[in-house]
Automatic annotation (TrEMBL):
Protein name from the UniProt record: Phloem protein 2
Single Gene Ontology MF annotation: carbohydrate binding
Organism field: Lithocarpus litseifolius
InterPro entries per record: PP2-like, PP2-like/Lectin
Pfam families: PP2
TM regions (residue ranges): none
Domain of life of the native organism: Eukaryota
Length: 145
């Protein structure tokens, strides 16, 4: 898992995004990023582990909407860029998603090519419409599906 601190978030640590810590399980504190008022522009980058060509992988963002979240009328864009130049793009509407509970946004699925190494980039953004607030980002996960 790539936690929120390791993601590139436009305008983080200003009045637009805040970082917060909370206890999730036991004594472990998790740092998250919370959107206060801004557009959405988050980017993650992971180096592929030694991939197995028979395994399908997925990348997801783990997020939560607060009770008062707003500005989510337009769908957000999720883009996955793979080491060989392949790109996947999808749109997801957050308007009807549950509030105050973690859920996953699937950025994309892929099967690595034999011996393929390099960086996998995964973006989450939406610059149109109203400014957004109330999105909490825990991080991104690359895992076998």
């Amino acid at each position: 898992m790539l936690y929120a601190r390791s993601l590139y978030i436009t305008w983080v640590n200003r009045e637009y995004w805040t970082r917060d810590c909370f206890g999730e399980t036991g004594d472990e504190n998790i740092e998250v990023a919370k959107l206060s008022q801004c557009w959405l522009d988050v980017r993650g980058k992971l180096t592929m582990p030694d991939p197995s060509p028979e395994v399908e992988y997925e990348i997801v963002y783990v997020v939560k909407l607060t009770k008062g979240a707003s500005g989510w009328e337009l769908p957000i864009r999720l883009i996955l860029s793979l080491p060989d130049g392949r790109v996947q793009e999808r749109q997801v509407c957050l308007l009807g998603k549950p509030r105050k509970q973690w859920f996953e946004l699937n950025v994309g699925n892929f099967q690595s090519k034999d011996g393929e190494l390099g960086e996998v980039c995964f973006d989450l953004f939406e610059h149109g419409g109203n400014w957004k607030n109330g999105l909490i980002i825990k991080g991104g996960i690359l895992r076998p599906k």
